[in-house]
Amino acid sequence: MAHDRLAELLKATPLLGVTITFLVLSWIAVTLRLWTRSRIVRNTGADDWAIIATLLLYTGLCIQLMRLGVIELTVDLLSHPDIFALVAYVS
């Protein structure tokens, strides 16, 4: 039973890694943008506040996806043999 769970987690590891990587890159990009806008340009606007709110929402979404195991579920769904037939049917 534990071996099956470990196998599922190992299958989900690349997708989890991509999620965490993009989350970290998003934080770095927004931090650099805000630093540039506040220190160099000295002009922060509504777009900067919107990007902060969006970053916080995206972070919350990533945390929930990791907590609920949706990433693992997605990997299981994509490894299902009938997924290609479903995609062909839908398209």
Characterization of the model:
The protein has 91 residues and is an all-alpha fold. It has one domain. 88% of the residues lie in helices and 0% in strands. The chain has helices spanning 2-41, 46-68, 70-78, 83-90. Helix 1 (2-41) packs antiparallel against helix 2 (46-68). The radius of gyration is 19 Å and the shape is elongated. The two termini are 37 Å apart. 2% of the residues are buried. The mean pLDDT is 79.
* Poorly predicted runs: none
Number of domains as seen in the coordinates: 1
Count of strand segments: 0
Individual helix count = 4
Helix content bin? over 70%
The best one-word shape is: elongated
What radius of gyration results from the CA coordinates?
19 Å
Q: Quote the average pLDDT.
A: 79
Please identify the structural class as seen in this structure.
Answer: mainly alpha
Q: What distance separates the N and C termini? A: 37 Å
Largest sheet: none
Strand portion, in percent?
Answer: under 5%
Secondary-structure element order, as H and E?
HHHH
Brief description of this entry?
Helices cover 88% and strands 0% of the residues. The two termini are 37 Å apart. With 91 residues, it is mainly alpha-helical.
Which helices and strands, and how do they pair?
Layout: H1 2-41, H2 46-68, H3 70-78, H4 83-90
Helix pairs in contact: 1-2, 1-3
